[in-house]
Specification:
This protein is 42% helix and 17% strand. The protein contains ten helices and 13 strands. A hairpin with a 2-residue loop joins β8 and β9. The longest helix is centred in the C-terminal third of the chain and has 24 residues.
Length: 370
């Protein structure tokens, strides 16, 4: 998933300058971010269909707990299906729950697979006069009106998913759809687990670098890689293991005379070690997004709704941001969590090392060449 850095920077610069991009205050609100559901018609070709219970459980939970719903693109799979087919399949289930949030509590961000929805009256809206409303991003702002988080799909700057959407769409509909069964059979294609360790690629590097330079936390989807605070799950497991070993040494010294406590400590350490070992065997542990130092918590990815064991979501509530997993039975687990204001402050401080004028002029220079 290659991204052109200049194109991406230019697109993000335009989004940040666009007065029509919605702004929502972080303080006093709860948010849940979900992306890449790729809803289909319920047939074999609908990669989402087995996760219906997971998403319904998640949507009901967030609705009952007062969250605003942020749908960050590729909610419908319009490269393979007609919107009427998708609505017919999910109108009385998913769309019906989304409508219960109320239009002022649902924000839709455009993705590369669901650009067509802007031309229709969406089933998530009750007011036909608002048909066709769409946004390329949402900005979460602080009490001073400063943008602290930029929510978008993340295809901006991609050759196959941005500039050449018509070609990519034709290939998916007419070619990939025919070879997909074989790809699944031989495990060349699919989303086995949200915890499958991912190796940071060009896509993550470009968005991470932009976020770091501009002092803004970027939250997106598109790659289907669930990443929390610039760490993939596998890398986070390595950090947790190191933290647990250090804590284990201290606890052993404090409780060395109590064999029961020592046994419990050993069990806890073994559980984390086995989970980390399982992740490391699936794929090599990912390289940090910033090899020169510990990555800043400026890049988050929602993952997707296509995992064979459920879906992932990002939550913001009471100054906590969390990466959550919803399994096939509709049960919620928290993979990772942290203090949002702390992340915002560390990203803001780090951006002071970059000259704002230089960052802005580079974006404008690229714009002038197009």
């Amino acid at each position: 998933m290659a991204h052109n850095k200049q194109d991406t920077y230019l697109r993000l610069h335009k989004i940040m300058q666009d007065s029509l991009v919605p702004k929502v205050e972080i303080g006093g609100n709860r948010f849940v971010m979900i992306s890449d559901l790729h809803l289909g018609n319920g047939s074999y070709w609908d990669n989402f269909r087995d996760n219906l219970k997971s998403l319904q459980s998640a949507l009901v939970h967030y609705l009952e707990n007062g969250y605003k719903l942020m749908l960050l693109g590729d909610i419908e799979e319009l490269w393979k299906f007609r919107l009427s087919q998708i609505v017919k399949r999910y109108d009385k289930s998913l769309y019906n729950v989304i409508r219960e949030y109320g239009e002022d509590n649902v924000y839709r961000v455009i993705g590369n697979h669901d650009t067509d929805w802007a031309s229709y009256r969406m089933s998530t809206r009750d007011d036909p006069t608002r048909a066709g409303t769409m946004s390329e991003a949402v900005r979460l702002i602080d009490e001073h009106g400063e943008t602290r988080m930029l929510l978008l799909h993340g295809h901006q700057g991609s050759l196959e998913s941005d500039r050449r959407i018509p070609i990519s769409r034709w290939l998916v509909k007419n070619l990939f759809k025919k070879v997909e069964p074989l790809a699944r059979l031989f495990k060349f294609y699919g989303h086995p687990s949200a915890t499958l360790s991912q190796i940071a690629g060009n896509y993550e590097h470009v968005y991470y670098t932009w976020a770091r330079e501009h002092g803004v936390i970027v939250t997106c989807g598109h790659s289907h890689n669930a990443i929390f605070a610039s760490h993939s799950y596998g890398e986070r497991m390595k950090d947790l293991l190191e933290e647990e070993i250090h804590r284990f040494q201290e606890d052993i010294l404090a409780n060395r005379a109590n064999l029961q406590v020592v046994g419990e400590l050993l069990g806890r350490l073994e559980k984390i070690f086995r989970e980390w070992l399982n992740e490391s065997q699936k794929r090599p542990l990912p390289d940090p997004l910033d090899p020169s130092r510990k990555p800043l918590p400026c890049y988050f990815n929602t993952g997707c709704g296509l995992y064979t064991d459920g879906l992932t979501s990002l939550e913001i509530a009471d100054d906590q941001i969390s990466l959550a997993k919803w399994d096939l039975d509709g049960r919620r687990y928290v993979y990772d969590s942290g203090c949002l204001s702390g992340y915002i402050e560390s990203v803001k401080e780090a951006s002071d090392f970059f000259e704002p004028a230089a960052v802005m002029s580079s974006s404008l220079k690229w714009a002038a060449t197009l």
